[in-house]
Amino acid sequence: MTTECTSRTKGIRGEFCRFFVVGVGATLLHLLVYWGLNALFLVDENRPVALSCTYIIGYVVSFVANYLVSLRWTFRTSGSVAKGVGFAFSHAVNAGMQVALLNLFRVVGLGAWMVWVVKNVCPELIEIVPLVGQSEALLPIPVYFIVVPVNFLMVRFFLRDR
Fold first, then answer.
1. Do residues 95 and 144 touch, judged by C-beta distance below 8 A?
2. In this structure, are residues 62 and 27 in contact, taking their beta carbons and an 8 Å threshold?
3. 46 closest CA partner among 1, 132, 98, 111
């Protein structure tokens, strides 16, 4: 294996690790806004439009923070209009995928199944963290497993210096 290939792989791994760290922070910010708005406005899975709205608002807040940190730290580059448009496009696709998957998982009952699993595997967890007993609170988790790798590839494509 050549040195160029090794350093390129290491670079991609480093970017993905930084992307992952930034993504975890953005995801936590997203979830905190989503959960906070749901609690503030008494939103549950019986109000799917409101659920989608609180999800999107949380996404927008995390998007702004994610963009700024991704430029400076994850990909170590400066911003430009083209990069901003590409980042916005990749996240618009990402947001659409997330809302579609969130609602698909709600319709098929995945959240209720996840709550059932938690209740049967670790019922104490619900006592410690009551939010884990609410299906709408768990629905974003499987969404992230699907959209994170797709989003990394799109964001990397748009933010990398060519």
1. no
2. yes
3. 111
Cα separation, 140 vs 56, whole angstroms: 12
Contacts with 102 (C-beta within 8 Å, 6 or more apart), sequence order: 51, 52, 55, 139, 140, 143
| Number of structural domains in the chain | 1
* AA identity, residue 120: N
CB atoms within 10 A of CB 46: 8
Residues 56-108 pLDDT 10s? 999 899 988 999 999 999 888 888 889 889 999 998 998 899 899 999 999 99
What number is the average pLDDT over the span 144-162? 85
Place of tokens 């590409």: 86
Who contacts 18 (Cβ-Cβ below 8 Å, separation ≥6)?
A: 73, 74, 75
How long, in residues, is the chain? 162
Instruction: Return the structure tokens found at 54.
Output: 């609180």
| CB-CB contact of 118 with 133 (8 Å) | yes
Q: Could you tell me the residue range of the domain that residue 76 belongs to?
A: 3-159
